[in-house]
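Our collaborator T.R. sent over the components below with a one-line note: 'Predict the complex.' Nothing else. No constraints on interfaces, no templates requested, no preferences about which chain binds where. So this is a plain run: every listed entity goes in together, and whatever single assembly comes back becomes the starting point for the next discussion.
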Amino acid sequence: MIPIRRPSKLVATGLALIASGCIALVAAAPARGSQQTAPTQGQGNPLQLDEGRRLYLESCSSCHGPQGEGARLSGGVAAPSLRGVGAASVDFYIATGRMPLADTNSQAVRKPPAFNDAQRAALVAYVTSLAPGGPPIPVVDLKGASLSAGAELFLTNCAACHNAAGVGGALSYGAFAPSLHPPTPVQIAEAQRIGPGNMPVFGPETLSDKQVDDVVRYVEYLQHPDDAGGAGLGHFGPIPEGFVGLLFGLGSLILFVAWVGTRA
Amino acid sequence: MTESNRPEGTEPHDPHFDPAARHPERAERTIAVAFVIATVAGLALAVTYWLGGQTQAEGALLFVCLGGLGFGITLWGKALMAQGPFVQERENLIGSDEDKAAFKESFVRGEESFERRRFLLRLLFGGVGALGVALIFPIRSLGPSPGRTLFRTQWRKGTRMVRSDGSPVRISDLEVGGVLTVFPEGSVGSSDSQTLLLRPAPSPITTQPGREDWSPSGYLAFSKVCTHAGCPVGLYEHDRKQLLCPCHQSTFDVLQGCQPSFGPATRPLPQLQITVDENGFFRAVDDYTDPIGPGFWNRGRRKG
Amino acid sequence: MKSPTAAVSRWVDDRFAASRWVRTALNKIFPDHWSFMLGEIALYAFVVLVLTGIYLTFFFDPSLNKVIYKGSYAPLQGVEMSAAYRSTLDISFDVRAGLVMRQMHHWAAIIFIGAIVVHLARVFFTGAFRRPRELNWIVGVTLFILAFVNGFAGYSLPDDQLSGTGLRIAYSIILAIPLIGTWAASLVFGGEFPSEAIISRLYGIHILIVPAAIAILLVAHLGIMWHQKHTQFKIAGATENNVVGSPLWPSYAAKSVGLFFMVSAFVAGLGGLAQINPIWIYGPFVADRVSSASQPDWYMGWLEGALRIMPAWEVRAFGFEIPNPFFPGVLLPGITFGLLYAWPFLEQRFSKDRDPHNVLDRPRDRPLRTALGATALSFYFLLFLAGGTDVWAVILHASVNALVISFRVAVLALPPLVGVVTYYLCKELSGAGGGRRKPPAIVERSVDGGYEARPAPRPAGSPEPELAPEPLPETAGTTE
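Returned assembly:
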């Protein structure tokens, strides 16, 4: 840990972090994961840590505080403490572009990441050096993963929000469960462990590392599912099917009978 | 087109029997092409099937084959056959008075042989009625009496809580923010006993007055069956501490004992009182105190 | 006279003396109008349903016995499921031409009920249900209900997650019926949900009982139409006492057979190229699972929407209650189909028009009926849209709660508005003049630049009383 002493700086106002509470609570939970990968807690080399601190102070500290202690922002929402959130959390939010937050009034959404891989690793190293704890970045090993076990786990635990086809779904009051088509295997595994935003946390006692891999394997399948029946129609189920059947199918037939019923 | 619509009597050369098309030979050629395309597509369909089949090819070839036939036949009927317009009189659909009188006479004549023996007739009605009543009873075989099944689940005093793979659940199993679907031991998969185990906070939560000791270490257990139309309330929004039913968007406030806060549901999801045994396993204190799931007319009358 | 056709017809005629009747039949005149073929689309969609359905019965196993899947769809290999679900997977992946047949069956069902609704709307708006055709209207509405029931039964058969969710909701709706709900639900399902019996019961209903009833009523529907002769629009030469059109043989027959092939063609095209109900994605039904965006097929959408936007109200007194789903799930369809059945008689009662009608109304000439129809259609269309609030929320990036509240308002506010607009639009189009419009004015510009307005002469023809038994205005030979 590298202590940083600085006069406390006024945090930026007007920031409301919808995804904040979750990280704060994750921080309170002990880490249980066994598989780890670089970068891990506080093990970065000094150069990397310096780079991480620089980036942190530049882009993160205005909300999360100079030492990652979090801050209460105007609007009553807390920017969560980052102390002890763990590497998976930092890596997930930065790699998916959800942090730094662009629109502070709505759910953190996926966007092109603001940092490259080295910068992200530096930030992970620095933030995890502030305090121990939190889930590490999972190592995804799809060689031993079972597609059918993943399907069962996905349909039981994930489909209620993300839809059986993984295309995402609506939550209450404008929140939504995002589509699972863009994330990478590591990000899918990280999300299960940290429970970003409104997502519940799936700790190692709920889903083992092997089961997390199974789920990742099935989500990868859903990104390119077997559309044996033809065009997938967005995989939103009976609604697009109804519109295609009525507007295209019945519509074409009505045009046909309009032609048949017209005298030459 | 409106000028030719005159349905007049037939003449030696009746234009109504001419082909409708202005250029019949052109229509004939189009029809021929359609039939040839249909034939080719039909043969290709047979080959596709023979080679092992492929859904998209089958659908497309079937479309071309059937569409070619349909278009060709329709055009034949539309362009090469007489269209008229022809006219036909409608018959009178109101019966004449003579017919009505004759019918009545015939009917009454037959009716008299019944009317004369009214006693027999009544007995006959009695017999048919009894048969009808007797035939209603087999409907009873279709299902068991609802009895008390709707008032109870498989949870009993001290039943251990297990996951869908049958393994028991410990006090240390959920992270804060975690959620798990659990069942009473021995009834994994039971539709009416399915229960959500949530851990919104690390310490006990009083969701309603009188439920001070219902949430060891911040664990809460609620029926997973929506009180509106019975879907599994599988959508847990951890940040908002809400359960949302994906079927009809009923929303339940977890920290307030799953009182409904939006949507059509009128009643809270019943909360299961849970406790931790000496080995750290969760157990139910007793069955749900309220009937779980959707409402029915006498739900408030009998406690299970 | 050596042709096989002649030989066969002679053989038949020597035994049934059929030639007289058949000759009359061949010469029968059918009025030509495109809207008269909408019902035919439904008829031929039903034929496609029967043909593809027969094929599917050879492979489908309506059993809830638990089996382990060993077929060729990798993501579910080794998963425990019902035999019904497994056989549906087999039809989709391991029976050659099975998937195209299954998908054709489902697309045909969607088009079947769609065509019924459009046909029903045509009959309603043109007044084709009036005397002497009230009974055929009743037969038609019954066919609509049967199609609706059979669609739901078929949707429920594969025992996938979506169909199980639908059955769960159906069970809850039956349970909500006052007094008899608990018994009715138990008798229909053979016990508490999910029962072992429901799939095999629905199978018998879906492949035998309802299709047989539909077939019988279809014969009655067509037979009554044949006997009473088809209605017609007021084209040149058409009167109440004749039929103007083309003969059954050969031109109408050719066009109709062509339409059958065309309906089959579009069903087949969709069946091969557009995926419908990919049950392998939804997974086998498990009671504690659910997927977001769980929707029924389109024709159930209005009920789904009504269930969603119904406020959290229910009736409770003395320990008894009328649960919330009763109102949108039982009362609404009861009123809907009840009103449909009663409509011809209601209209007769209020219009005092009990005369036979063979010439159709133009919708614009019956503003009140057309406005009421438009009101009802917009009401059901809004309910239908409300059935997809969660999907619209994702697509529009909107709040599902805001959408639900908007639909609650819209369902009550928009249909009357649509009705009023339709009413005045009809008045305008029918050229009846009058109404509550201001009399038109002619504005003249004088040579020195001034303007002067004077009332225009009123258009000829007086406004018609609503639903009055008067003849339609001459439309100068237009064929609509």
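Summary for T.R.: The CA atoms of residues 61 and 141 of chain A lie 34 Å apart.
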